[in-house]
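Lecture 7 notes. Example A: sequence first, then its structure tokens.
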Amino acid sequence: MKSNYRKIGDFIQQVNTKNADGSIELLLGVNLDKVFINSVANTIGTDMTKYKVIKKGQFGCKLMSVGRDKKLPISRLVDYEKAIISSAYYVFEVVDENILNPEYLMMWFLRPESDRYLWFQSGGDVRGRITWDDLCQLPIKVPSIEKQREIVKEYNSIINRIKLNETLNHKLEDTAQALYKHWFVDFEFPINLCHLERSREVSIESLNNIDYSKGYKSSGGKMVYNEELDMEIPEGWEDTKLSELLEVKYGKDYKHLEAGDIPLYGSGGIMGYYNKALYEKPSILIPRKGSLDNILFVDEPFWSVDTMFYTIIKEESYINYLFQFLKKIDYYSLNVGSAVPSMTTKVLNDISIILPLPKILERYENLTSKMFRIVKQNDRQNFILVELASTILSKMSKVETKTVEV
């Protein structure tokens, strides 16, 4: 019979090298996202010489739970020269990289079709295991090495752009968080902002004889004790309840919606794009169940799922300040659920918050709003890029290859 597919086993070979002298201490595992991660196993008193060595460019995979997880935990080591992994893992490498590009092979393993094939192979095992022979039977299309490199280059250009956007977003978010801490936790906001304040009374005495080259507190700015917050805060600042600054609303089911260009948010971020918006103004989204600490900021029309709260901000000039404040709360200590972590509107509404002087909040909003606009642009671009990357993976099965006898 003729086929355009080959078996992966024709191109790979196992590598079984032990950490005999115990010299390698970096212990890794592979998660279901097919990424190497630092192992969380307790290795105190463990004989590290029994672990397998994996070198840069080699693959590590675990075949024990494919049927249960419906995914093959597999990755190619690229960030380290060498590491060790559990003896439960298989380590292998490409026999001839001039015939099969290792990066192309890793892309093939990223395809949902590969996971489905291997999951099907596990059907006869109670624990959902597959064997090495099962893995080797996985069909793969192997075009010319030049075509493989072309596909890898196109895919990597997209992945690298996604990573660049993520790095930039992390830096911008870290900057906004650092500024929040400096101004509203350490109280080192620019002292000259006090001169601009007119909506609340600040004593003249508190502005005399201070060093304006430093922040408020280190310059000698007056601090007063707040009984509700049980701490000292700058003179003129107040305390209030979260319910005074925003209204917490429930998200809604989205299954009746049709495809469109309005983002749908779940606790993990954008889940897709649909044709209607639940709310059209800037909002802060707070998980209601499950992962309670993934707070999201949205500044465009959106729909949020029913396991997410969205918020109506009563004063939009407070929104970035509120976002940073809400991100720092330990929601699990406020959890009202039993089996599944849960949050209620009552708990959220009753949270106490510092209310700084309006001009200081206005300045903070002006600085951080520019950052978050860039973050949202990058998030939207990454959603599109992820779709493009998935398209490249799906088209790998359609690439032209030479027909071989099997």
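Example B, a different protein, same format:
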Amino acid sequence: MIKDYVATRFYLEIDDLDYTPFDALGGRGRMYQLFWDEMNSVIN
């Protein structure tokens, strides 16, 4: 039940990748490396 709630209401912006926990895994730069042109589609 909680998992479903979080999965349907989770919101992420590109700027969020600069903060914990994402920054520990490379943050925005790593996301660009992995997804490049598709990054905005993945975030949205």
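Note on Example B: The mean pLDDT is 82. Residues 27-35 form the longest helix (9 residues).
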